[in-house]
Amino acid sequence: MASKIKRIGVLTGGGDCPGLNAVIRAVVKSAIRRYELAVVGIADGFLGLVEDRMHDLTWDSVSNILTQGGTILGTNNKCDPRRFAVPAEGGIRYEDRTAICLDHIRRHKLDALIIIGGDGTMTVASHLVGQGINCIGVPKTIDNDL
Hints:
This protein is an alpha/beta fold. The protein has helices spanning 20-33, 46-51, 98-107, 119-130; strands at residues 7-12, 38-42, 54-57, 84-88, 91-95, 112-117, 135-139. The chain is globular and about 50 Å long.
């Protein structure tokens, strides 16, 4: 029997666009009221997952955010944990930081991720699904390329 989901993480990836705070608010308030879940906000897209920048989101923390522009979580359109840029002598080298992301997901006891983003964000999300992470993608685009 599958375990019951108790804690979820939410992140926004890709470019900033209108409506992100409305989605975050809807996710948090629905999760809390309807499903009695705890919600963790992940700052700056997958970068926050790599760097372990997460904080609890509550009913009050998402109240009155509809009129704020952008996303209260921040976003990032450059971070792919599979190809994470690291400064190196003479330039940049790329490392796979997937294992670090999985460790942070486990440390925060996240049972699933709600990932808000476009095609690039969903490509990274599909990689996490392949690693056994439950993900729900909420499509958004600034390029009209879903």
